[in-house]
Amino acid sequence: MAVLRQTGRTLRQLLLVSAVGTGLSACGFVPTPFGEHRTPHPTYKVGAPYTVKGITYYPHVDYAYDRTGIASWYGEQFQGQYTANGEIFDLNEISAAHTTLPLPSIVEVVNLQNNRSLRIRVNDRGPFARNRIIDLSRRAAQLLGFERSGTATVRVTVLRDESRRAAALAQRGVISEGEEPVAEVAAAPEPAAATQTASAAPAHQFFVEAPLHHVQAGPVASQEDADRLLDQMIGSGYRDARIVID
Hints:
Barwin-like endoglucanases, Alpha-Beta Plaits
């Protein structure tokens, strides 16, 4: 049978099959009676190929994964349910679903519409809507600034070292812990602009490293402050500036 998951303004469809089919674990959803207590049992999982809505997905390890596409988000309908690798989904925590990456993996997601960036733990399967490359928890969508719109154009990049550490912990049944992210602005301007901006804003910490001329301002206390600082940086000539939430 099929279960529909609300993702912002879209529906995420999951195909549930019997034990003699492709396997329930590939669906990213294990139904349990409403209100029943669930105990997380995190594992490291790549998984066998599985088919949803006529499309077959082939999970595999891919530390070079770097794609641009549409992100969506999911929330209340799956609150408290098991993820595909045995964790418990919490819409107020930062997590994500992907069709083929190992579980867990750590990815950087950049909202290309506002330059916000967030490191996210992938622990579930999906999305299965056409042209979607990642499904985020509501909290992740809030931090990336597209909760209201429901979708956003994003770039998703696997973080190799972080993913290996998360996998090693999961193999021991441990969920890596994270902290509530704090926004900061990072940029890669021309050398002359770096010197001028650093002298104009002494309240922030700036440093320049050859040959990249990396400039960092922050951290700041809120998303609103980060957005204002981003506007100032772009107005000062830092056209590639973006918000990094870490």
